[in-house]
């Protein structure tokens, strides 16, 4: 178990390292230079001055040199400052990270509660109108873009009914973005739960459990649900990554002050230190979550052991 | 200077629709941009009068990059500088330069010295006095090559800044710099207090000390900037009526990136002012008696065509002129924008900027003339079987995609096949420069926009090597240099005219329209006294909430 954990940890670090290299290469592939963009439109600075600022920022060096210098600083905990406005990058990210995590976790809870419940009942009532209705809903849920769903929710619950604020980063405003993100993902979870449950419900041990006279609720909760959930929990890690990614769109719609929104803005401004910092933090969170979930997986299903 | 500034204020039509049932389709239609309006109201009962105090929330699509005026030049940033700091001079409503922190100024005959005499008894937000030392501190910091200042070029060839006495400060230049005096009225030249030096890295991040009408309380980056009124504010030159401190207690500048969400926030009354509402939903604002639309004019913004001249066909003046004759700008504007939002612009520098003269530019501008365009193309050997193939690029947003689509169809009518490429402004800037440095491939032209408060913009764009390494000529350089070194207003106007004539008759810079970028605002009707000064500067000194 410990060996497995260490192996996973090293694998995780390797993943993060590869990600930083890929991102550094990719952002330099996009045309446009941060200093030039900063000066574009409504600015008067000579090309020599722009060149000097690029030199000050180290942007005139080869990419690999910039990368090594950057990683050297990061290992000492220095994420640098934004090119635009000279703000400390780590501060910018850490102030926002809890907001994104809060949104992602709340959405994940909504996804699990709604998705698993719907999938479970659809499987249990297989072939009935309940099954059909729930699965039709799931198809709609998968097809609706979260951008549109978000605006719909604002239109109904904020503008018409006045129940929730339109924007802002506080608990009051958490409901609508979390619903937007949660419902879209609940749709796919419900389909997975349904097929997994159908599998389990047709197993011999289900018939045995019923044959020995176990109450239906016990049959379902002890034998069907727990076994059916293994696949779903396995998918949790993937779901969480979706949540973090999907948060970028939802954060924009609801003006939720998370790191995704910062990332988009930085990409448009080619603010390399911010983009790199974002990816580093993002990759770290995803790696940690997936390790934790793997350990959780073994705990739920004792048949699984790591060695 | 003779331009006129007026603020178009469209009082919303009073019109309400009762909503019978909330069918899903109806909601769908409304949120997708139709004019279905909501009747949620938080407005006060009629007859209430404006009072002092209170908080106004201003929602914008993005955040400031920094509160340090030497660190960034984005509109989102300088519109905040404009609240926290003040400038030595100011633009009045008719765009003339008037005294502000400086009660008088004098330019030496040879144009190499500018002396300012400051008002007495001015204080910074932290209570320290504001005097000539603060001016010197600001200028030295802005032009210090050790400091990564982004406004250095705009200050001109400063040799030294001398404090003559606490109320008098003198700028000495290596050579005359005509754009300096107007720069002193621009937020990029915001005066910062020398006590900021003690703040170190925190200046512009968590703290900012100025003399402006609003003082910084807190800045939650990406979320909101909270400003309180400066109770000691004295108006010297700002284009407002209120002579003292602002009427409001607090001004909160909030970030709401999505336009539909901003509009929803205005509709619910969660925010009282938004910039850049969705342009397709302006009827929802006009049709709502609780909301008012404000359109800024004389912003100094100029949308124009420029061409890649490093290769055929646009290295030939006839190809550039053919494009200029082929397009029908007025028709395109009617398709792309609601009436009254933008105006056709005939000069390379826009309305509101010194030297803009529609009549003068009209003599050299290109009116819609498809026959002339076809004739020029025929001379170059193009025909119906052999159309001219080019790429038309522009940046995304503010209905620019729609503009270029109309242009595309107009160009097709004379035999120019233009492929459209739209991209974010950062990419476009890089791309235009790249295209100018390439000597092969399909040629490009682009719809670009720049904003500046002085005709010096033309120098920045077109003096070799130019902003994008585009069209260059020694003759044009000479004309441009004269606009920089000529200090006398009448002579400078002539110099600017010469440049505009050159750019137009050589079809280098084809002006299209103004303003066109982040110039539409909407308020709750309860907001009284909101004003957008020249060059797109929202001012809140006169604002009261009803």
TrEMBL record, chain A:
The chain crosses the membrane at residues 9-30, 101-124, 136-159, 232-255, 275-300. Its main location: membrane. CDD domains: TM_PBP2. PROSITE patterns: ABC_TM1. This is ABC transporter permease. Pfam families: BPD_transp_1, BPD_transp_1_N. Residues 97-297 form the ABC transmembrane type-1 domain. Keywords: Cell membrane, Membrane, Transmembrane, Transmembrane helix, Transport. It is found in: Cell membrane. SUPFAM superfamilies: MetI-like. Signal peptide: none annotated. It is a multi-pass membrane protein.
UniProtKB/TrEMBL annotation, chain B:
The keyword Transport applies. It comes from the Bacteria. Residues 1-31 form the signal peptide. InterPro entries: Peptide/Ni-bd, SBP_5, SBP_5_dom. Keywords: Signal, Transport. Residues 96-467 form the Solute-binding protein family domain. Gene3D superfamilies: Dipeptide-binding Protein, Domain 3, Periplasmic binding protein-like II. CDD domains: PBP2_NikA_DppA_OppA_like. It holds the Pfam family SBP_bac_5. Belongs to the bacterial solute-binding protein 5 family. PANTHER family: OLIGOPEPTIDE-BINDING PROTEIN APPA (PTHR30290:SF9), PERIPLASMIC BINDING COMPONENT OF ABC TRANSPORTER (PTHR30290). This is ABC transporter substrate-binding protein. The lineage of its organism: Bacteria, Bacillati, Cyanobacteriota, Cyanophyceae, Oscillatoriophycideae.
């Amino acid at each position: 178990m410990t060996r497995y954990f260490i192996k996973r940890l090293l694998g995780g670090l390797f993943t993060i390292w590869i990600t930083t290299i890929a991102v550094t290469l990719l952002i330099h592939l996009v045309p446009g230079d941060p200093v030039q963009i900063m000066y574009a439109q409504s600015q008067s600075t000579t090309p020599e001055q722009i060149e000097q600022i690029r030199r000050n920022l180290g942007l005139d060096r080869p990419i690999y040199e910039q990368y090594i210098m950057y990683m050297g600083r990061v290992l000492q905990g220095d994420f640098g400052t934004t090119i635009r406005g000279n703000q400390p990058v780590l501060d910018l990210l850490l102030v926002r990270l809890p907001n994104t995590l809060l949104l992602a976790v709340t959405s994940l809870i909504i996804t699990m509660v709604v998705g698993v419940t719907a999938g479970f009942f659809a499987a249990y009532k297989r072939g009935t109108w309940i099954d059909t209705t729930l699965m039709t809903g799931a198809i709609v849920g998968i097809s609706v873009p979260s951008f549109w769903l978000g605006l719909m929710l604002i239109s109904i619950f904020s503008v018409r009914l006045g129940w929730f604020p339109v924007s802002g980063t506080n608990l009051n405003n958490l409901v609508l973005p979390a619903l937007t993100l949660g419902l879209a993902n609940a749709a796919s979870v419900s389909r997975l739960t349904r097929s997994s449950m159908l599998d389990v419900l047709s197993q011999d041990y289900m018939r045995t459990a019923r044959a020995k006279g176990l109450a239906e609720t016990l049959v379902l909760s002890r034998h069907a649900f727990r076994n059916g959930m293994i696949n779903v929990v396995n998918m949790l890690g993937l779901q969480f990554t979706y949540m973090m990614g999907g948060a970028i769109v939802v954060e924009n719609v609801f003006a939720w002050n998370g790191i995704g929104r910062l990332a988009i803005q930085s990409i448009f401004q080619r603010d390399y230190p911010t983009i790199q910092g974002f990816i580093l933090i993002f990759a770290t969170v995803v790696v940690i979550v997936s390790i934790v979930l793997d350990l959780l997986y073994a705990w739920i299903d004792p048949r699984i052991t790591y060695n | 200077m003779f331009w006129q500034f007026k603020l178009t204020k469209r009082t919303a039509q009073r019109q309400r629709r009762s909503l019978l049932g909330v069918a899903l389709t109806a909601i769908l239609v409304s949120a997708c941009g139709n004019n279905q309006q909501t009747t949620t109201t938080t407005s006060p009962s009629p007859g209430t009068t404006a009072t002092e105090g209170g908080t106004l929330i201003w929602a914008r699509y993005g955040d400031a990059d920094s509160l340090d005026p030497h660190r960034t030049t984005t509109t989102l940033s300088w519109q905040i500088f404009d609240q926290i700091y003040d400038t030595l001079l100011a633009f009045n409503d008719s765009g003339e330069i008037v005294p502000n922190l400086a009660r008088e100024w004098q330019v030496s005959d040879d144009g190499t010295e500018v002396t300012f005499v400051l008002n007495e008894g001015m204080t910074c937000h932290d209570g320290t006095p504001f005097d000539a030392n603060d001016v010197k501190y600001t200028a030295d910091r802005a032009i210090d090559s050790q400091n990564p200042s982004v406004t250095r070029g705009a200050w001109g060839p400063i040799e030294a800044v001398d404090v003559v006495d606490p109320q008098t400060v003198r700028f000495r230049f290596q050579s005359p710099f005509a754009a300096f005096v107007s720069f002193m009225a621009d937020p990029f030249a915001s005066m910062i207090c020398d006590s900021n030096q003690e703040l170190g890295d925190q200046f512009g991040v968590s703290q900012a000390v100025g003399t402006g009408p609003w003082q910084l309380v807190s800045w939650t980056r990406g979320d909101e900037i909270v400003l309180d009124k400066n109770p000691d504010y004295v108006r010297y030159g700002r284009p407002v009526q209120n002579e003292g401190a602002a009427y409001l207690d607090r001004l909160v500048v909030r970030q709401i990136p999505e336009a539909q969400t901003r509009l929803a926030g205005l509709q619910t009354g969660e925010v009282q002012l938004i910039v850049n509402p969705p342009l397709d939903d302006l009827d929802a604002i006009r049709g709502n008696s609780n909301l008012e639309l404000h359109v800024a004019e004389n912003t100094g913004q100029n949308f124009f065509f420029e061409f890649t001249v490093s290769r055929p066909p646009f290295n030939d003046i006839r190809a550039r002129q053919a494009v200029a004759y082929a397009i029908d700008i007025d028709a395109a504007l009617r398709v792309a924008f609601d009436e009254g939002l933008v105006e056709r612009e005939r000069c390379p520098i826009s309305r509101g900027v010194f030297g803009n003269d529609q009549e003068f530019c009209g003599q050299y501008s290109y009116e819609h003339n498809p026959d002339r365009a076809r004739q020029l193309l025929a001379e170059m050997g193009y025909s119906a079987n052999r159309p001219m193939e080019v790429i038309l690029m522009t940046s995304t947003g503010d209905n620019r995609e729609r503009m270029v689509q109309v242009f595309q169809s107009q160009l097709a009518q004379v035999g120019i096949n233009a492929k459209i490429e739209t991209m974010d402004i950062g990419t476009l800037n890089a791309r235009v420069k790249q295209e100018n440095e390439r000597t092969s491939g399909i040629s490009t032209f682009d719809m670009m926009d720049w904003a500046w408060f002085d005709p010096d913009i033309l120098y920045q764009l077109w003096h070799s090597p130019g902003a994008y390494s585009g069209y260059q000529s020694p003759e044009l350089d000479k004309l441009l240099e004269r606009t920089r070194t000529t200090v006398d207003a009448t002579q400078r106007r002539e110099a600017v005219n010469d440049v505009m004539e050159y750019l137009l008759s050589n079809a280098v810079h084809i002006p299209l329209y103004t303003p066109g970028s982040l110039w539409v605002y909407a308020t709750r009707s309860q907001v009284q006294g909101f004003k957008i000064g020249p060059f797109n500067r929202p001012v809140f000194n006169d604002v009261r909430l009803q």
